[in-house]
Amino acid sequence: MAKKAGDRISDALDHIKRAFAGRGSSTDGDKAKGATWDWLEEHQDVKGISGLISIGGFRGLFKDEGKTELRQYQRAYLLIERTLGGRSDADVRGLKTHLETATGKAALASAESVKTDIRSVYYKWADKQKKKETPQIFGEPILAPSFQYASSLHRTNLAPAVKRASQLLTQAWIGLARVKMDTHEKKRFEYYFAKPMTDAALTKVKDVLKAVHDVVCARRITLYYRGDKAPTTLAKNDTPKWLRDQGANALGPDDSYGFVYADVQRPGEYHVFLGKDFFADASRHGKDSMSGVIIHEMTHLLKNTDDHAYGEADAHALVTGPNKAQALENADNYEYFVESFQSKVTTKFG
Asked: What is the residue-wise DSSP string for 78-96?
């Protein structure tokens, strides 16, 4: 009896896991199965995979020995090659033809070897993921797949922008530490946050900027391209599935400098979406910079700051306005405060 499509995929996933039995880490099989399943979930627009891995039973010597279970490993191999291995449908058909034409002892030998091949495909994929997701320097961003639609200049500007943000935040933190002993630093603080300065205000600002500093300077931030040429179809939407499941689609070009989903988060993950204004208007240096936008968005993401006012003049006006506490809640106040340390940083752009 022919297998149903879902059963064939399910069996292949189970055999991907089994291919790791007694090999490597005790959890590698689960990870390989999970990664393949995640690929299938993320690429539901890719059709016909079950039929692609459909392969008939063995003949001759192999069938007589009752080794048809090993055929399942070949299906598992075809599945992992098509998913984590990045093979095309045509590539997988070629692999399947080779497996189908093998008979007797050759079939037995090839069926055994695919267990090794399954592990190899997974480990190569895992190595690529590690290299892709691990910054080469502290604060280096991860560029989401949507950046393939951005210009090369837009892509190459991002690592220096994050590095500059890291340097600015470090200098700002040094400045905060000197507020009570340095008149210049006290005036700077009072201009952007609270005049006269209070311990409560200083504690609040330190709390926000320490959170941003610790992530921007030493953790992975994933940046998404939502500029003019950002993809508009669901099939090309690189917003993580867990965000989309919460209704955060973030699809297509966006008119903003940037945005985040502060109410939908996973611990240890930091996702920032950069809109058309970021690429059209944000400068490399000075105020309203790319680095400043990233800092602005990270205050939203990490400490749920608000947008009570935009622009340096209006942000400063909050300090003396009727709702003075808003200056301590406003993302632009943090951005401009940190950018005021620009004379102390030396980041070079390409």
From this structure: HHHHHTTT---HHHHHHHH
Per-residue pLDDT tens over the stretch 205-219? 999 999 999 999 988
Which three-class secondary structure string do you get for 250-271? CCCCCCCCEECCCCCCCCCCCE
H/E stretch holding 143 reads strand 142-143
Inter-CA distances, 186 with 49, 123, 180, 199, Å: 64, 54, 7, 12
Write down the pTM of the prediction.
0.63
Q: Cβ atoms within 10 A of the Cβ of 185, count? A: 17
Residues 6+ apart with CB under 8 A from 20: 28, 29, 32, 118, 119, 122
- What are the tens digits of pLDDT across the range 126-170? 888 776 654 444 567 999 999 999 999 999 999 999 999 999 999
What domains appear along the chain, each with residue ranges and CATH number?
A: 5-133 (no CATH), 142-344 (3.40.390.10)
